[in-house]
Each structure stands twice: as structure tokens, then as C-alpha cells.
Amino acid sequence: MHKLNKNILLVEPDYYTRFPPLGLLKIGRYHMEIEKDRVGLVRGNEPKDNPDISYADDIEFNGEPDIIYVTSLFTWASKPVHDSIVHYKDLYPNSKILVGGLYATLFPKDAEKTGAKVLPGLFRKAENQKPLYELIDDVWDGSIIFSSRGCIRKCDFCAVPILEKGIHNVKYSIKSLVHKEHSRIIFWDNNILGAPNWKSIFDELQEIGLKVDFNQGLDARLINDEVAEKLSKLKMQFIRIAYDRQNMGKSVKNAIDKLSNYGISPRKIVCYMMYNFEDTPKDIFERIRKLLTWGAVAYPMRYQPVLDPDFSLKKNSYISPNWNKEQLQKIAEARRIVGFAGTFPPYNKLVERFNETSNFEELIFEKKSDENKLLDTTKKSTSNRLKNAKPRYNKKFDWRKTRKKR
Ligand code: SF4
Q1: Across 390-398, average pLDDT
Q2: Which overall architecture, per CATH, does domain 7-126 show?
Q3: Residues contacting ligand 1 via CB (< 6 Å)
Q4: Nearest atom of ligand 1 to the alpha carbon of 154
Q5: Domain residue limits, the chain
Q6: What's the whole-model pTM score?
Q7: At 124, is the pLDDT very low, low, confident or very high (cuts 50, 70, 90)?
Q8: Whether the Cβ atoms of residue 95 and residue 67 lie closer than 8 Å to each other
Q9: Which of 146, 152, 157, 160 to mutate to test the pocket of ligand 1 (most atoms within 8 A of CB)?
Q10: How far apart are CA 227 and CA 258, in angstroms?
Q11: Strand, helix or coil at 223?
């Protein structure tokens, strides 16, 4: 017989993430509104006595959880997921425990070792629910939306063509998915410009007037005058594009020029740059140098296979045949020492440095005094930015420490 008003505990394990657990929040809405259950959310492993649970509408559990949903994310962050399952199983031995999310979907056998039941892929019944932002509204102010899923391309280093395949789940309006108290909208579409709805979505965003972040990046090859003009009318802090291979240089330069023609400063363009795939250290150095001379910000991203059990379960374990450990360390050091927050911004000094040197080793060690100047600037800006952040949880710098910007 269907038991009414179940207690549903949503668990986000204690891994680093910059975004709240969207899947769990959708499941929360489904249970609250469709099943009329009580819903609570915890982060990490809370003690049984006095656990820090956020409840929807402040309606607390009457007893122990009936169902516990544990989410997962990066494949290399499986340990906190296993720890959470063990922890809550110990605490609530009579509850049903389900584990979903990216890691559990890609490595179900590994996730099953915990004894939890694996829910692979999307939880269909909840997919079209509006996330239950009420559970996190004291710390989070952005509506996360997929206006489409999938991609028109098949890049060989990317898991999207395998996991999502072509464009699907296309929405022509997203207004109803924007939480009324939020000040920004974050899109997680894999390739929004490749989807047939992009114009309707951009027009609607202009009308809504909130800040927008196309977080997964925009396809530089699809940025033409019409796209650039529409983007220039949106409130965006950054425009994210990718420059993963040398042969994309022409499209990237063209996108930067087009956006610039419509008044968007290249300094607002952040460019993801993959390395440690089929490239070489020289190749990524050259790409960054070119990008900086075009005035945009470089964000190097180390390639890691997503679907290979030999490498995917351990972060940064993959080393491409064209790279070695020392070379990978040098780029990481360069990002830390002469970069800013992991990026290489087009500061004049840094552009000069890239023009004068030919590899990351020289970049770090030459001109020590300039280096210290760059380091000082970086430290000052970082400390100013974080000074007023009010973390709710005294843990790592993740979404729960993100300041609300109202
Ligand atoms: S364009 Fe982007 S999302 Fe699409 S396959 Fe290539 S890397 Fe993946």
C-alpha cells in the first residue's frame, strides 16, 4: 500500500562543486509536490543528533527517512559518495538508499559496491520539475536551466556525443523555470547555439533582463553577426568559448572580432583550452600566446578521459603520450604563479612574457621581479573578492560559500 507523507532525505556528498545538486533538487520538487512527501537536504555526513538539514517549507521529518537519495558527480570523486552511503546506511539501516548522478551512471558496478541501488541516467519523473530551490535559498541565487541537451558535433575527447547524443529536450521558453527570487540564470546546455531554439531563448532572456551565464560555453564556430548582436543585449559577466585545437584558431579569432564589433570586450571572453589530449606542450603554449594577443582570457583545462575505468576514477591520472609528468606540472605551476585564479588574462606584462618565451618553464622562471608584481596583483584581487563572502558551511570553496549578489 502507498505510504503517504514519506520522509525523503537528499544527500549531496562532500565533494568540491561550484553548483548545487540540480538532480536532487528536481527529485525534491517531485516528492514534495507530486507525492506530498516531506523533503530535506544535507551536505556531507551529518550526525544523527541535531543534523544540519534544510527542509522545504520548514516541514521537518516525523521520524527517520524512508528514502535517501545520494547524488554523485565527477568520476574521480567517488570516495565521498561511498562514504556518504556507508554513513547514512549506518545511521538509518531501515531506509532505502538510492544513488544516482554522473559517476553512478558511468560506473554503476563500482557504485553498487556500496550496497545502494543505482539509479542511472535521468530520473524521468522528476526531469521536468522545477528544482526545489527553497531548500537552498539562503545561500544560492541562480536558476540552472537546460534549454536543450546534446550536441550537433562529435568531438572525440568529449563524453556528450556518447551520453546525450544529438540535440534533444528542446524548450522554446524557459521563463517558468526561473525562480522568482533569483538574480541570474545559468545554462547547462551542451551546445545551445547548435540547438534550434537559441533565438527564442536569447530573445526571452533579453526580456527577462537577469544576468546570464552560458556555463558550458558557446560554440565559437557558430558565433556570427546575428549571434553576436543578440549576445550584446544580454547581461553577461563572461562569454565562454573553447579553443581546443590549433585548427579552431580562425573561428576563435573570428568570434572574438565579431563580439568585439558589437561592443563586447575581448577581456570578457574566457576561452577553455584543452591540453594533454593529442596536443603537445608547445601547441598549448602557442594557442595561449595567440589568444592573449587577441585580448581574451585563457583557461587551460587538462584532459581526463571520462569513460575509461583505468583513468576516470582518479583525478589527473591520465598522461597523454605527447606529455610527461614534469611538463604537466609546469603548466599547473604557471597557472598558479603567473596566472590569475587558474586563468591567463591578457595583462600586458603577461602577453609580453608569452611573446618573449617559448615554454612554460621559461615563462615561470624568467624575469623574477615582474613575476612578483603579477603575484601581488593576483593576491590583492583574490582577497578583495572573497573578503565579504559569508559561508554557511565552514568547508571548501564550493557553491555553499557562494555569496548571494542581490
Ligand atoms: S562541441 Fe562541445 S559539447 Fe559538442 S561534442 Fe564538441 S566538446 Fe562536446
Answers
A1: 43
A2: 3-Layer(aba) Sandwich (3.40)
A3: 151, 153-155, 158, 160-161, 190-191, 219
A4: 5
A5: 7-126, 217-401
A6: 0.87
A7: confident
A8: yes
A9: 160
A10: 9
A11: coil
